[in-house]
Amino acid sequence: MKKVLLASTALVAFAGAAAAEVSISGNAEMGIVGGSAEGTIFDEDAGEFRDFDVTAPAQFFNDVDVDFDMSGETDGGLAFGASVDLDEAPNLGNELDDMGITVFISSDFGTLTMGDTDGALDFVTQDMGIGNPGSINDAETEHLGYLGAWLDGSGDGQIVRYDYTFDAFTFALSVEQHPGDGETFPLVNGGDSGAIGEDDNDITWAVGFAYQGEFGGGSWGASIGYQYSDDATLNFGGGADEGDEVTIAFATGEETAATGVGGFIDLDNGFSAAITYTYFDFEDADDADHIGIGAGYTFDAWSVHANYGVWSNDDATVDGWGISAGYDLGGGASLLFGYGDSSIDIDDSDAEFDGSNYSFGLSFAF
Question: Is the pTM of this model over 0.90?
Fold first, then answer.
């Protein structure tokens, strides 16, 4: 993305201080979006299954986002920086929660990052969105089969991650706290903090390792990681059969562990592909696994991408696929198309679901 410096030269606070830079970048999108869904669900109030068929007609869509990036370095060579996503501006006043900002310090001993950033498993893993030119509403990655953040977001969204790269190896470790559900307490400078309670010690933590190598026609990489949450949240499909909940790789409020492995290739001719496998161990539900594959190809001004993901356990299958295409118009402008399709199939049940969404429009990077 093109960056516009707020100052043509580094900002120097005082003599002898290391240089600091502030830059601003942004993007805007406009187009149309739509979708549809149909299936059969169990109506608990009526005590019976009922069919549904809904369509979201094509409607106008627009979005604007601005990002601020700041960086500097101490006299001793310690790099530091921060970024602010204006899209998250309403959260900027909450210092104890996910506020759309990231702050980091970095040296020869690694990098420590805090804020709206990836957990360790996500950080080391190339997910199924490889080679994706994107779309104005992320239709190609919003289907139920997509996995791109693992257990990140189970807590307050504010992640602390340490990562270190040596030669072709990368190591990462992260922790995310969970908000409590009890009384609030006053801050020194006034106001109330987030709630505190018996669950305030709950965390989500992750560890990951990755290796990246090169060969004559491109590069490749492999990763392995583990993530554990005291109180997991996974945002994807679920279903019900005659009033009894059927868990479909869906967990909230329970201990969950995820073990993931992945690999990718990135060729000089513009083709790239990735595959991931993740095993989820749920405390009070059937274990489930997820397989995700994705590929992209760039040629001339065109970029195309496709992905497919499937969740499965002993009772059900949730899957989805997405495609996208982009044409670079030059100067930061692109024409984008995205489509995603989802389905849920529950064994020995009349319940089912099929849905899709799409978008088409222009994206501008500044």
Answer: no
